[in-house]
Amino acid sequence: MGAKQIASPLNFETVWAALMENREQLKETARQMQETDRRLGKLGKRMGEVVEYMVVPNLREKFRELGYDFPQTHQNSSVSDRANNIFLEIDAKLENDDKVMLVEVKTKPTIKDVQDHVRRLKKMRKYADLHGDSGLKSSGLKSSGLKSERTFLGAVAGVVMKDNVKEYILKQGFFVIEPSGESFKIIPPNNKPNEW
To answer: DSSP letters along 149-177, please?
Structure first.
């Protein structure tokens, strides 16, 4: 028969040592979890960038198929108007003399993302009106207080899109941009696109 091992009796020192060892293990586990969260956050941001670089270069052709001709495309542009407190970032902006399409690109868009895009379009409308935006044919001179001659449209692009989010996007009068086979497709709003 094998010898029985006798456990050391519990006392304050042994309990305290066990708690301290457990505490160190918990700290290490927490550190590892934070590192994992940080890496996943970077991955999520990178995935968003991948989506942008896959979608944006082909947007003009896809919108042309729907009857919209946008000769200019800008990626990752922003507006910073301190005087009027208007600040916004735009993932993709397509322009012609009459219309400007602002595209929000997300890996997995949410209803909040769509609501933010509505606010973005309202800000862009206000900014354009304040600065007399008159399209690509303008001479580049801006007159304060002139209403913009162009209309603004919106679109939301996403790789993974829940049905309720897609329906919400369409109800807001936005175009939906989503994967389709090796490329992507654009779904126009249910009715006429909302114009700002």
So the answer is: SSEEEEEEEESS--HHHHHHHHHTT-EEE
Render pLDDT for 105-135 as a digit per residue (tens, 0 to 9).
998 999 999 999 999 999 999 999 998 876 6
Domains, in order of start, for the chain: 56-187 (3.40.1350.10)
Beta strands in the chain (DSSP E): 72-81, 86-95, 99-106, 151-158, 175-180, 183-187
**Separation CA 193–CA 111 (nearest Å):** 18
15, 21 contact by CB (below 8 A): no
Inter-residue long-range contacts of 132-141, CB under 8 Å, 24+ positions, other chains counted:
135/95, 135/96, 135/97, 135/98, 136/71, 136/72, 136/95, 136/96, 136/97, 137/97
Please give the structure tokens belonging to residue 24. Answer: 């160190």
Q: Which residues have a Cβ under 8 Å from the Cβ of 136 and sit 6 or more positions away?
A: 71, 72, 95, 96, 97
pLDDT higher than 90, residue 28: no
Tens of pLDDT along 40-64? 666 656 666 766 777 777 899 999 9
